[in-house]
Amino acid sequence: MKIINLKSGHIQIYKRENSKFWQMKLKYPKEKAIRLSTGTKILNDAKKISLDQYYKYSTFKIREDKKKKNDFKKIHLIDSKNLSKKEILHLIKESKKYIFFNKQKIKKYKILEGRTIFNLFFEDSTRTRTSFEVAAKRLGADLINVALKDSSINKGETLLDTMTTINSMNPDILIVRHPEEGISEKISKLVDASVINAGDGSNEHPTQALLDALTINNRFKNFSKLKIAICGDILHSRVARSNIEILSKLGANINVIGPKELIPKNIHKYPVHVFHNMKKGLQNCDIVMMLRIQKERIVGKFMPSEKAYFKKFGLDYEKLNFAKKNAFVMHPGPMNRGVEIDSKLADDITRSLIQEQVAMGVAIRMACLEIIIQNRDIYGK
């Protein structure tokens, strides 16, 4: 019997001596193998048929959960402040199937085949942009990256004209990062596509906060018993604002720590406790989330020297001892090692969840893309 393996053995094509047609054996994680006839004598056709069948069944396995209760019915993801606790928990729950999926050798579902997603990044990004790109491609979508340097905005075109042009191409989702606060909401009212805010100035970054919540949920099941410190440049941090919104709704107690000059004047409208001292602010904390100083947003304002800042507010093992004994460390990236966090601590896999945050980013963004497009199909624009 002749056997041919495809997709690292997830697909086997074989032909017995007394058989006319090539047969296929499809193997999925935690599933019984499926054996079917390809209905063809030609090997190349058998390969194509078996691959199509493999992806078709994969798509069905994800989509069969559609009838389950959907607590997130929005077609845009613009901010965290308008997300309910139910919506947040639904997105976290749906992302967990992708944590397992992303550990498999074959990381490809065609659930979004034929859908078009634009990555529109008008600020520098590595983690968020590539995370969305990986998420979209693993779900089978067509992904187009548009960076500021590649856009006609450099030739004088307005952002509105750029969005109108892209809208004419009938995309399904626009993922937008831009320095202007509130721009994602404005764009969502101009275009037919769904919009995901990937960061708008110092305002919000909802998928970062969702992935942080997912990372924490993997370690702690009950948010209401948690004490979380967010430390650093709170004033200019969209990550801080989104995390405060989401983590407080989930029941966590939140401390914010930083120099007075880097704490927003309206901080008291948020459900947080404010500290200007690491020792007091880290007391009994389960999670310590560090933020970088956003030099690109500090123009003509307070700018501490890196050495002085690290001595007072940079996280090292000595300061981490003020928190709970087994407290974990998080950072949304990019890190400034030796400024807001000690390099050895950042790489300590017994305490640092930083790399896990990156992995959770792909899972949460896969869930967001799937659910938002599903909602578009069900509820329309």
UniProtKB/TrEMBL annotation:
Reactions catalysed: carbamoyl phosphate + L-aspartate = N-carbamoyl-L-aspartate + phosphate + H(+)
PROSITE patterns in UniProt: CARBAMOYLTRANSFERASE (PS00097)
Residues of the Aspartate/ornithine carbamoyltransferase carbamoyl-P binding domain: 76-217
EC number(s) per entry: 2.1.3.2
GO CC annotation: cytosol
Keywords carried by this UniProt record: Pyrimidine biosynthesis, Transferase
Keyword set includes Amino-acid biosynthesis: no
Gene3D superfamilies referenced in this protein's UniProt entry, alphabetically: Aspartate/ornithine carbamoyltransferase
GO annotation, biological process: 'de novo' pyrimidine nucleobase biosynthetic process; 'de novo' UMP biosynthetic process; amino acid metabolic process
UniProt-recorded Gene Ontology molecular function terms: amino acid binding; aspartate carbamoyltransferase activity
The protein's annotated pathway: Pyrimidine metabolism; UMP biosynthesis via de novo pathway; (S)-dihydroorotate from bicarbonate: step 2/3
Task of the protein: Catalyzes the condensation of carbamoyl phosphate and aspartate to form carbamoyl aspartate and inorganic phosphate, the committed step in the de novo pyrimidine nucleotide biosynthesis pathway.
NCBIfam families to which the protein is assigned, alphabetical: asp_carb_tr, PRK00856.1
Protein name, as recorded: aspartate carbamoyltransferase
